[in-house]
Amino acid sequence: MKVVTGTTMQEIDRRTIEEFGVPGLALMENAGTGCVAAITELCDSTGRAVVVAGKGNNGGDGFVVARLLRENGWQVATFVIARKEEIGGDARVNLERLGDGAVTFCSEPGMLGHYVAALREADVIVDALLGTGLRSEVTGVYAEAISLVNAAGPPVLAVDIPSGIDAATGKVLGTAVRADLTVTFALAKCGHVMYPGVTFTGSLKVVDIGIPGEVTDAAPGLEFLEADAIRPLLRKRERTSHKGSFGHCLIIAGSTGKTGAAAMAANSAVRSGAGLVTLAVPASLSPILEAKTTEAMTLPLPDGDLGYLVNADQAFIDNALEGKNAVAVGPGLSLHPETVQLVRRLVSTVSLPLVLDADGLNAVAGEPEVLLHKKSPALILTPHPGEMARLAGCSVTDVERGRTTAAREFAEYHGVYVILKGARTIIAAPDGRLAINGSGNPGMASGGMGDVLAGILVALLAQGYEPFTACRIGVFLHGHAADMVAAEMGEIGMAAVDVQERLPYACNQLIQ
């Protein structure tokens, strides 16, 4: 599903009206009609509706809803949080069509509060206060109206987007309506699917209002990853396949106290379909990893019983790259100075598809310019917000304020793929393509989940998936497996190994 920002949607509307000759009034009428159809599905019969409208086009959509509901036999009260003279354009036309007698203007503080009983007694409240063009924080009478709508009790249908939600980021701009159902037009907006906006949106319904497909197709947007988007990307296996058909990946990982990270990355690569997996680890830890991994092969790297990788391991790794299809570096590696130097050299010398995770990312964060000298044709970084902040030289607050922007700008500048983890993980390609993941749950907030993801990604690269495709499949599959675990045992106490062991089941469910 394609999602766009509010700014992009405004440009889509402009092109539709100016270049394709579709009247704005027609778009507004179709928008209101779509909302009324959704209300009819939501409510078993006609009843009492309250429309709370603003002065802009979102309010104009609300006026259409009020008029059409009345024509369908509803009792409708419409409250406008503005003065009549503030309303212009297409919204004013639809206000006039509704008629002054059907509207109560509540432009001053406290005025809407006189009608709390009407809000509480409604069968549905229609939020048509503020649309996708909102940029600043909600204050004054609009904030008061949102508070009264949220406190009223009846189901709330939001027109286009819940009032107060930033359509580009999902951020709450001061306060926001908590909708049970949101009816949006032509395309979903980023604010509908990104947190915290997703929690205010309720169920989301996208309706066609007559915007030409060539306009929406040409508009820049992000791909929201759902099961239907992933299914066509997964390849079924030929009956004559053998282990050589699905690649050989090398995972460079592990240090004293962090053997679990290395094991989970290797075992997850096996569970994600890699034909062969080799796990390169400090030699002193190899016996431990051989006990923790059965299908994966181990490659002991001389470490002088130090428990971490050293500079001298470069030559051994170079030899190990022969015959491999993809490499992952980082799970549980440690940040010993020699290990850090080794990681940086690997980034500048490995010419295979490469996943850089965990301590691999932290090693590069001290010298991010090494990414500009990479040899890999496809370098995937998997930072959480803290790691992203260290890589980009900014604060975690800066990253979280604009997750999409942070991932896109870093990916484009450094020529890498960025998987910015978190609720609604962002995937950014160096050519500007963007995706937002729709799978996963809070049970994944536990140690080791990133190691599982690293194993999934390197396995997909080894199987020959195009890098952006591997990123999208990997991130969604990771969250989907976790969703299956949550459905079986709940979110609390979910372990990374639980997700690792559900990977084949998740893949099987998606590929059918």
TrEMBL record:
Residue positions binding K(+): 58, 127, 163
Pfam families linked: Carb_kinase, YjeF_N
Residue span(s) of domain YjeF C-terminal: 226-510
Note describing how the cofactor binds: Binds 1 potassium ion per subunit.
EC number of this enzyme: 4.2.1.136, 5.1.99.6
Domain YjeF N-terminal span(s) in chain numbering: 9-217
Cofactor(s) needed for function: Mg(2+); K(+)
Annotated positions binding AMP: 421-425, 450
InterPro entries cross-referenced by the UniProt entry: Carbohydrate_kinase_pred_CS, CARKD, Nnr, Ribokinase-like, YjeF_N_dom, YjeF_N_dom_sf
Keyword Metal-binding: yes
Coiled-coil residue windows: none
Annotated residues for binding of (6S)-NADPHX: 57-61, 131-137, 142, 160, 261, 332, 384, 451
Catalytic reactions of this protein: (6S)-NADPHX + ADP = AMP + phosphate + NADPH + H(+); (6R)-NADHX = (6S)-NADHX; (6S)-NADHX + ADP = AMP + phosphate + NADH + H(+); (6R)-NADPHX = (6S)-NADPHX
Keyword terms: ATP-binding, Isomerase, Lyase, Metal-binding, Multifunctional enzyme, NAD, NADP, Nucleotide-binding, Potassium
Subunit and interaction comment: Homotetramer.
Function: Catalyzes the dehydration of the S-form of NAD(P)HX at the expense of ADP, which is converted to AMP. Together with NAD(P)HX epimerase, which catalyzes the epimerization of the S- and R-forms, the enzyme allows the repair of both epimers of NAD(P)HX, a damaged form of NAD(P)H that is a result of enzymatic or heat-dependent hydration.
Protein family (similarity comment): In the N-terminal section; belongs to the NnrE/AIBP family.
Protein name: Bifunctional NAD(P)H-hydrate repair enzyme
Source taxonomy: Bacteria, Pseudomonadati, Thermodesulfobacteriota, Desulfuromonadia, Geobacterales
